[in-house]
Amino acid sequence: MDLVPALEEPLRQPLKSVLGPATAKVMAEHLGLLTVGDLLHHYPRRYEERGQLTHLADLPMDEHVTVVAQVADARLHTFASAKAPRGKGQRLEVTITDGSGRLQLVFFGAGVHKPHKELLPGTRAMFAGKVSVFNRRLQLAHPAYELLRGDPEESVETWAGALIPIYPATAKLESWKIGKAIQTVLPTAQEAVDPLPDTLREGRGLVPLPEALLKIHRPHTKADIEDARSRLKWDEAFVLQVALARRRHADAQLPAVPRKPAPDGLLTAFDARLPFTLTDGQQRVSREIFDDLATDHPMHRLLQGEVGSGKTLVALRAMLAVVDAGGQAAMLAPTEVLAQQHHRSVVEMMGELAEGGMLGGAEQATKVVLLTGSMGAAARRHALLDLTTGEAGIVIGTHALIEDKVQFHDLGLVVVDEQHRFGVEQRDALRGKGKQPPHLLVMTATPIPRTVAMTVFGDLETSVLDQLPAGRSPIASHVVPAADKPHFLSRAWERVREEVENGHQAYIVCPRIGDEEDDPKKSARKKSPEDEAEKRPPLAVLDVADQLAKGPLQGLRVEVLHGRMHPDDKDAVMRRFAAGETHVLVATTVIEVGVNVPNATAMVIMDADRFGVSQLHQLRGRVGRGSAPGLCLLVTEMPEASPARQRLNAVASTLDGFELSRIDLEQRREGDVLGQAQSGARTSLKVLAVIEDEEIIAEARQEATAVVADDPELTRLPALRTALDALLDEEREQYLEKG
């Protein structure tokens, strides 16, 4: 983050390396650490006290861990094997303990000699390796280890109380080796340039950056760690918020055509057609959007709303307002199924208002065209012509809208549905098609906690629709533990039949399609029964549909829908389901977003533990869209105590998407969430936790906005400018540029 010469120095260079060339190579390739500064900002994940041992009871499966523990016993076994037929094979089994649990370490062959001499009962050491299961017991095979010997001059108390930093590590480089490398470069921390303005740092009682770096890597007390973390959290929050504040400031300087709806125009005619009144939330959010559209700089607004809160209607009214004002509006959908679905529902909602230039079209009508990659050449030519001439006021399509051939008469508004499915470059390409930058409305049905919205979408103003339209029905959700209670699964299929008998329809969702080629290498390997249960491939649409049609759902009309079908076939299946001709639709997550069939009341999600929390919430939102109550059954084979089951219980216990998004964020690593939302740009957050540190983020946003308003180019704050340049490496710079 701090690009000053000493910290800019590469860890690996042709003439002299700061570290050994092999270590520097692994750090670059596996941890992305290239300079001394990168290494200093590679903070410990946690700290162990030598006198206190870690919780072996809580070790995660299949993860690379570092533990501090004591050897309880060590036994050397001999055995016969193909390589050592005369009983000369050797296996060393070492049991380590920490008071909370025990863990077995195993070493084989020539690898047994050193640990056999060193790992004697009573010895304390740090062990690092990947947690696996053998004979239903956790073990580390051939772990790396470092004996914890006290310095002869240290008193027992000092040695036992020392804090050992445990660093994010890789199989190729253990935590203690990273620690030693950091100790080598730690003296250069004195030269770190402080990005926080002095007034801010002093006003909040934060320690200077060099002191924070020393304290985080070499703490003497827990208070040192606290001081360092408080300071470093502020760095991350503030520098990122300054980047976003500068983006907002720059956007406010761009020109845009104000778009005010004509009185008694298309929007008024559309509102008069609606068979219901808008909710208070829809009216409030519409006002916010119309106020933005009326200004002479581009709107940048994020519209987030619960599944089924009527976002599409709000977006359509914004598009009609722009058409009223003489412009065109484009809606970008992530999949063809969804683009077709949006097109169908928009045309239905608008009626004769969507028949511009056609016989029977209303006086204020416009044309609504669909543009997707799989359209026939003639239909496509026609749609492109309607866009160029301005005949079509509204276009709905997939990324096919972005191609060079697509020209607009006067693009005034871009609506992006399901933000996280679109790359930034794609949004940018579409925005480049306006004569002046068009207004931008981004919709997401994944509720985002306020702090994440401030951190990830901080350059967008946010509108929230948190009220469901009248007439929406509640959805009952239940976990079906198929392994513990198989009769629950049988009852689930009976419930599906009951819904169909009552004139309704059902979705069954599976994680996989089922026509993938099996990898012969994988199937050739012999697996233990535990492995089979643990690693069973996810259930597949084609297999499940076949089994149900021949078994528990025999006699019902069952169809399948997945992403690899031809677009025309997908559309035909959706039409039959929407028309009520199909009783049960067995599908992958292609139905996750925007699919609207009010008569579908039940959903069974197979292998529900293989889906994320927000994905389950999205899927569940496909039922309960009419007047009949919805039912969602989450089928899993995971045992009751597992984290996966706790996640499913959380989904079953609440319909509040904002609450679930908090749970989701707390359970996943923050970087995953931010990384995904930031279109793959690497997250800069190392110590800042967007849920816990809500207050810091909100305060940093205020401070950043004030700093940028006072000095947009940061000319009086060169150290902050340097930190910003380091944060916004090319990839992130482009990400923020394209907003």
Describe the structure.
- With 739 residues, the protein is of the alpha/beta class.
- Helix content is 40%, strand content 18%.
- A 7-stranded parallel beta sheet has the order 11-12-10-13-14-9-15, with helices on both faces. The chain has a 6-stranded parallel beta sheet with strand order 16-21-20-17-19-18, with helices on both faces.
- Helix 9 packs across helix 26 (694-710) and helix 10 (266-273) packs antiparallel against helix 12.
- The longest helix has 32 residues, at 222-253.
- The protein is globular and about 90 Å long.
- The two termini are 22 Å apart.
- Mean pLDDT is 81; it is low at 517-534, 669-683 and 730-739.
Summarize the structure.
The chain is of the alpha/beta class. It is built from 28 helices and 21 strands.
- What's the total number of strands? 21
* Structural class based on helices, strands and sheet pairing: alpha/beta
The profile of the biggest β sheet is:
7 strands, parallel
The low-confidence runs, each spanning 5 or more residues with pLDDT under 50, are 517-534, 669-683, 730-739
Strand content: 15-25%
Mean pLDDT equals 81
Question: Helicity level, as a percent range?
Answer: 25-40%
Shape: globular
- Number of separate helices: 28
Instruction: Write down the Rg.
Output: 30 Å
Strand order of the largest sheet: 11-12-10-13-14-9-15
**Span from first to last CA?**
22 Å
